[in-house]
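Morning run. Coffee first, then this:
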Amino acid sequence: MNVAGNSERPLLAVTMGDPAGIGPEVVLRALAAGELATDARLLVVGTRSILEDRARDLSLSMDLPPVVEAGECGEGDFGAFLYDVPGVDLVGLRSGVASAASGRAALAYIEQAVEWALTGDVDGLVTGPINKEALLLAGSVFPGHTELLAAHTGSRRATMMLVGGGLRVSLVTTHVAVRRLLGLLTTKRILQTIQVTDGALQTWFGIASPRIAVCALNPHAGDAGRFGTEDTTIVAPAVKQAKGKGIECVGPLPSDALFYYAAQGRYDAVVALYHDQGLIPVKLLAFDRAVNVTLGLPIIRTSVDHGTAYDIVGQGMASPSSLIEAIRLAAAFARRRGSAPRSAEARSTDQ
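And here it is:
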């Protein structure tokens, strides 16, 4: 179902991200690249004054007609528009510095875009980079987009997947300290991640019979208990249960070899147990092109896979490649959504 009304060029809300970071710049650069005209119509959600300042400083185009609601976005030659979020307090904002002001603004952009996605006024959401320190200073309890979006959409099984370099990698845990890892890894949680990944591969990526591999926690998958028993007592039972539900799944496999074979196309997705285990191979293969996808939501959401890069703000060094890929992927999801079997979509969003 393409609720915003154009199956070939879906309407996507693109949040500007932290206004003190490189988000405004990469949005402008992505639009200026001219590569997205046939993919989607874009509704940038942010602050006009910030975009105008960045455009002037970097000699970038700022051709974004204003709208006051998503329904005003017509076709146009390119179809890029701007919603200037009202009531955003930028007092204390400094370019390249985390602050309560930048955190509050980033949250306001996300909240507006999520509202439109939930009501069907836009076909999907693409988010610019936010900063965890700025969110904390703004009083947010959420460490990142995934947790924030889960709360705003009432989703219990939001799962982060990274896409890039021929890999699709879902994470069982995300932004947590390594010392807390063992307390969070449970058979139930790993199984849920496998299920959400399987459903999303069918629904969003159009893979009828996905092949999923699950990473081991310990070196050599524990080496028969020599390096720990978690792989046999926690991970292996999740894989066995997934197989019992009809999911083509293997593991736990040592990640040092697993990612090589995944990059060669042996598996359609990898389930990694913790943040760096999954992100390192993706960023090695697609550092400036990787896309962050949130699975298990009732809405489409993709994002850049990079941070606010405060150290290079305004220097003309920020690449729009990740944002361009995120927009293309969200547009592809939106076009596919209408024809996805309900059973697969339910497995990825409702459970």
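The longest strand covers residues 41-46. Good start to the day.
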